[in-house]
Amino acid sequence: MSIDEQSWLRLAIALGIGLLIGIERERRKGEGPARSIAGIRTFAVAALLGAVSVMLGDEILLSVAVCGVMLLAAIGYYRSPEDPGLTTEIALLLTVLLGALAMRQPALAAGLGAGVAILLAARSRMHHFARKVLTEAEFNDALLLAAATLVVLPLIPDRYVGPYAAINPHVAWTIVILMMVIGAAGHIALRLLGPRYGLAIAGFASGFVSSAATIGSMGERAQQMPGLMGPAVAGAVLSTVATVVQMTALLAATSFDTLRALALPLACAGAVAVAYGAVFMVRTASEPVADSGAPGRAFSFRTALLFAITVTGVMFVSAAIVDWLGAAGLVPTAGAAGFADTHSIAVSIASLAAAQKISVSDATIPILVALSTNTVTKIALAVINGGSRYAMQVVPGLVLTIMAAWLGWLLTP
């Protein structure tokens, strides 16, 4: 049987996989009678065994080789004086299969081999994370988020139902997941970066997903942990900066003329939001931040569900207004839609301007109105979720930001 250059390369990849995994296992093999059954040589040979089996006998010989390795691994396991676990035995079996895979999909096999080696090498860190870092509440929240995303979401119908065909159950549940993800992002940033800067950075990043949801989530956290009031306010205000940046990018992609007409209002709004957020960042940096104590829950499912119900109700009202007023009611329609989301209605209006169905000047006011009504939603969420103390610090920044946007519109030539 002749072997071409491609086959030699794939054999080399299989050998590399075995050596890479084998080096990691060799470092943990131990000494004396208690040492593990396999090291660098065994893993390298096992990978080549899988590769050669595919070359000579395809699936049948590979099955025989796998069964043989399984038998030898089982004998070695039962002859061990202690219970060493099954990691090495399973890794050895997987190495045989990766060696076989390298003969057909070398890139995939190489990537998987590197991933297995990294996973094995991270044993101590993973054990420490699972046992010492991750709390029981955080683990339960992770399971809840996984179930909501991977189990419940695919089962919910993705179609508009109800009066005016305004309610989409799939979208509503996606909003619930969105709120949980934002809360989890803030929780992770808090754990990694500390309370002083973690929430501010998480707030800005989450604002690209939903500034309103971020403000509600930060308010919930400030209610649960009053010592994090300053960082939570900074994160809430900085999320409005992300709103302005995202609006600019969407308008640039949809209608550059509309963006040019709104350039000064957006610049003024962004400048005020940055300045107001910077004030709280400076205050947070200069003042001691109270210890938040135990990590607590990553998110509040009740808050996420309540937010989704609120947004769904606003969507229903918006659809009703569109049905009552028709296309003539562009401004009230934009205002009603803005209560739920400002970006989708802004893109819709900018698309009309790009298609020359409306003038650019006619597009600016509805977009600003949508920003204004969305600010009302943010204010309501700040009051409901964060309480009076949180709202008294967040609401002035929201009001000043939208006032700056309208002032920029008045100053636009």
What is the helix fraction of residues, given as a range?
over 70%
- Rg over alpha carbons: 29 Å
Give the number of helices: 16
Count of distinct strands? 0
Which regions are unreliable across 5 or more consecutive residues at pLDDT < 50?
none
Essential attributes:
413 residues; mainly alpha; 2 domains; 79% helix; 0% strand
Task: Summarize the structure in words.
The chain has 413 residues and is mainly α. The chain has 2 domains: 5-129, no CATH class; 134-411, no CATH class. It has helices spanning 5-27, 40-78, 87-102, 106-121, 123-133, 136-152, 169-193, 198-207, 211-224, 229-254, 256-261, 263-286, 301-325, 330-338, 342-354, 360-411. The termini are far apart.
Quick rundown:
This protein is mainly α and about 425 residues long. The chain is built from 16 helices and no strands. It has two domains: about 5-130, no CATH class; about 135-410, no CATH class.
Sequence-ordered SSE layout with sheet pairings:
Blueprint: H1 5-27, H2 40-78, H3 87-102, H4 106-121, H5 123-133, H6 136-152, H7 169-193, H8 198-207, H9 211-224, H10 229-254, H11 256-261, H12 263-286, H13 301-325, H14 330-338, H15 342-354, H16 360-411
